[in-house]
Design goal:
This protein has about 160 residues and is α/β, with parallel strands linked by helices. It is about 20% helix and about 25% strand. The chain contains 4 helices and 6 strands, in the order H-H-H-E-E-E-E-E-H-E. It has a 6-stranded mixed β-barrel with strand order 1-5-2-4-3-6.
Length: about 160
């Protein structure tokens, strides 16, 4: 008797998943359109030990540099203000600026007085408003400002 009871339970479980033929078939809910995925930029590796020149310390790839200097899309950008920036740690790879103009990490752009612009990561410096910023060596190179200068930069989030 036990095997037939198990068989009956199995059949009942299978029937629970079936819908009657007269039940209307619901169309799947329309999914909200999803934006095209943005390519994830690979972080630049740290510079090799013993690197002494700007070229050796800049480990960004040509593709990263091209993406960073592509024409900006100002739609949705927010102008955060201006800051005077000095060269940050050359051993910290990538395109970034540490600035008191942000309180959390975000993507953005900086623009120099010479009209050059670079897309980069905005990092909070923790400094007081107006205390200045530090910018990565690769970003300074793309802005075409001398590494020893203190350029005034306009900072945008977006």
């Amino acid at each position: 008797m036990l095997p037939s009871a198990l068989t009956a339970l199995g059949l009942l479980a299978g029937c629970a998943e079936l819908q009657p033929a007269s039940a209307p078939v619901e169309a799947p809910a329309a999914a909200a359109p999803t934006p095209a995925p943005q390519p994830v930029a690979q972080p630049a590796p740290p510079p090799p030990s013993g690197a002494a020149s700007a070229e050796a310390l800049d480990t960004t790839t040509p593709e990263q540099r091209d993406a960073a200097t592509a024409a900006p899309e100002p739609v949705g950008e927010q102008r955060l203000g201006t800051t005077v920036a000095s060269l940050g740690s050359p051993a910290d790879p990538g395109l970034w600026i540490e600035t008191p103009l942000v309180s959390s990490v975000a993507q953005g752009r900086v623009e120099a007085a010479n009209g050059k612009s670079v897309k980069l990561e905005l990092r909070p410096s923790g400094g007081a408003s107006g205390s200045g910023s530090e910018i990565s060596l690769p970003a300074m190179r793309l802005l075409e400002v001398p590494l020893t200068d203190l350029p005034e930069l306009t900072v945008y989030r977006g």
